[in-house]
């Protein structure tokens, strides 16, 4: 268990983090989610030991401090050298040597899907391949705790899928994963628990299922040439993508009602569908939708 | 530390611009200057001594460009920040980065002198002292390289400062022409330049060099300049680390 108590971080006049209190259980995938500049990376860097000048405390309650693998937001690889040389270097830095180092390079190359490009220079790689190698470098010493800061920025769908598979595999091995992203669908797909960060503060935290239950209602989405009078039909949450979103505690019944009305009045909507609550809805409910450009 | 040194060495040895500035260009200059000034001269070896030792010191300074580029890149691409999450200490990182550059300068100086011996009949009285001087010169220029890298916001800052140091030192320190032929004022100012002492140290190890200073004094002065370089680097390294990690 990692306990973060009253952590504050300031960059000159900017308060990047304010009174952060969090508990991250061992063996879970824990997401930090929030807009750009929210403070996710600052918190990640503090947890990874990169930023050391902060107020507050961080305790690890396990008997042995976990070994740490940090995947920074930047792709920091030696581009003029091969994937093997890069992995070799990160393994050596973590104290691996001899046969174990060679074996681990092969294993990680296989895990990140780069075995057939092992000896190619990194500068010849695509963005997705570099991102995978960037992750692989952090996994060389088989860390107990993996901290990832926006690991899928700018990657192609295939590489993203591969990265997701790697993370699921790490979860199955019982590793603790801290995953920061502003892509809420990634957090929803990969993480067990989440902390919403906005303006340097934790807005809410908890298990994703609990948050969805507490903050987001299922809804029905209808799009098409709908009479205005229908908007009083049920509670309209919001106008979305040129259609209307109706919140309901009984969405199936509402879906049926709307379908019946359409049939009675001979209206053919271009879309009529059930909308499951999403993490994004929870986030907007908690933080609003105003732009954060001044943050 | 050794992992960083190994990585840096591999990286630098593949860098064509480093090979050009630190090896190809000095060889071209030496051949060119020898062709111009030594062709009809009665004592070719004396001219070779001046030119090869002078250009060895002059081009050793150009390692600073590669050092600044390497450190600035590490800071900008998050490498230094990433290292902070590993068991590598900041000291291990800096020494690991510094060592290969020092070795490259020693190698560069030795290749140039071997060329002088083979092609221009240069002879060295005390080869061990020549190597020792090469090590001291390498320490001095690389200590300044680390210092400049710590304070450089961009690679261009390093490029500009290196050229100022290289050309000013060459003119004042008598690297391009015998020191005693320089105007008296220049000679007085020149004795404050590290390049002058580096050059004098090399000349001291060659036979028949009446103007060569005592090698011991020259080495001590070079050590002093190295100390100043590392002290400046130490002052800047916290700022460098802070900027790398924020």
UniProtKB/TrEMBL annotation, chain A:
CDD domains: ABC_DR_subfamily_A. GO terms for molecular function: ATP binding; ATP hydrolysis activity. Residues 2-224 form the ABC transporter domain. Keywords: ATP-binding, Nucleotide-binding. It holds the Pfam family ABC_tran. It comes from the Bacteria. The keyword Lipid biosynthesis does not apply. This is ABC-2 type transport system ATP-binding protein. It comes from Geomicrobium halophilum.
UniProtKB/TrEMBL annotation, chain B:
It holds the Pfam family ABC2_membrane. Keywords: Cell membrane, Membrane, Transmembrane, Transmembrane helix, Transport. One of its GO terms (molecular function) is ABC-type transporter activity. It is a multi-pass membrane protein. GO terms for cellular component: ATP-binding cassette (ABC) transporter complex. Residues 17-240 form the ABC transmembrane type-2 domain. The chain crosses the membrane at residues 18-38, 50-72, 98-122, 128-151, 158-177, 215-237. It is found in: Cell membrane; Membrane. The keyword Protease does not apply. InterPro entries: ABC-2_transporter, ABC2_TM, ABC2_TM_bact-type, ABC_2_transport. PROSITE patterns: ABC_TM2. PANTHER family: DOXORUBICIN RESISTANCE ABC TRANSPORTER PERMEASE PROTEIN DRRC-RELATED (PTHR43027:SF1). Belongs to the ABC-2 integral membrane protein family. This is Transport permease protein. It comes from Geomicrobium halophilum. The lineage of its organism: Bacteria, Bacillati, Bacillota, Bacilli, Bacillales.
